[in-house]
Write a structure and sequence with these properties.
Layout: H1 19-30, H2 34-47, H3 57-70, H4 77-86, H5 97-112, H6 117-129, H7 140-149, H8 157-170, H9 176-192, H10 200-205, H11 207-224
Helix pairs in contact: 1-2, 3-4, 3-7, 4-6, 4-7, 5-6, 9-11
Length: about 230
């Protein structure tokens, strides 16, 4: 497992290089009290769990950086940042259950840090919302978190292929046919929506590339599952 001590020495060989960035980002958000550092330790430990393949520290990094780009659209950018830290803090490959458990974890740990109760409730709401990425009209915080979480869809073609391979690896115990069917349901729902992104920035900078990537993945999954008729 990746070493996750926020207050320790720099990472040694084989440890992920971005830990220094995480240390700084977490301190900027939560402060540098012993309790805050302990919560940061726990979160980084969770994100560094060995069974993860996509929901890992690089995904957290990309999500937090995307939130920074979108922060001007949020009503409470720091609530969104906390939600980004917690949104996959519990990850066992159980959609819905993982988000609920992550929200409960956010409530417990942020309350222990004396974060404003209203902000704690908002963070927990945002974390639960990532189960389906459904936002209500006017939900500025939700729009920012959802767009940041889905910013991976607008990756370069090679990065997108690496993302899909990592997602498949996390569901490696699911038979191919079942995985394809479930993945296709999600992707088709995405492309049928008027927009993949809720913020103006997301639509201007990510929408076109993301839609191209998703549609290409749909074609690959459909072709992989197609059975050629026998030759006579």
């Amino acid at each position: 497992m990746v070493s996750t001590r926020l207050s320790g020495d720099r990472p040694g060989p084989g440890q992920w290089m971005g830990l220094r960035w995480f240390r700084s980002a977490w301190r900027d958000l939560a402060g540098s009290s012993p309790d805050a550092l302990a919560v940061g330790d726990e979160l980084l430990g969770r994100w560094g769990e060995e069974h993860r393949r996509y929901h890992t520290l690089p995904h957290l990094l990309n999500t937090l950086r995307a939130v920074d780009k979108l922060a001007g659209h949020a009503r409470d950018p720091d609530a969104v940042r906390y939600a980004a830290w917690f949104h996959d803090a519990v990850y066992e490959g159980r959609p819905g259950d993982d988000e609920r458990a992550s929200a409960l974890l956010a409530e417990r740990l942020l309350t222990a840090l004396d974060v404003d109760p209203g902000r704690v409730r908002e963070v927990a709401r945002l974390v639960r919302m990532t189960a389906d990425h459904r936002t209500e009209p006017g939900d500025a915080n939700g729009a920012v978190l959802c767009d940041a979480d889905l910013s991976v869809l607008a990756s370069s073609p090679d990065e997108y292929l690496a993302y899909t391979a990592a997602v498949r690896a996390e569901y490696r115990r699911v038979p191919d046919a079942l995985f394809r069917a479930g993945r296709l349901r999600i992707l088709r729902k995405l492309v049928l929506a008027p927009h993949l992104y809720e913020t103006e920035y997301g639509r201007a900078h990510w929408e076109l590339r993301a839609r191209e990537n998703v549609e290409a993945e749909i074609r690959r999954l459909e072709a992989f599952g197609r059975v050629e008729p026998p030759r006579l």
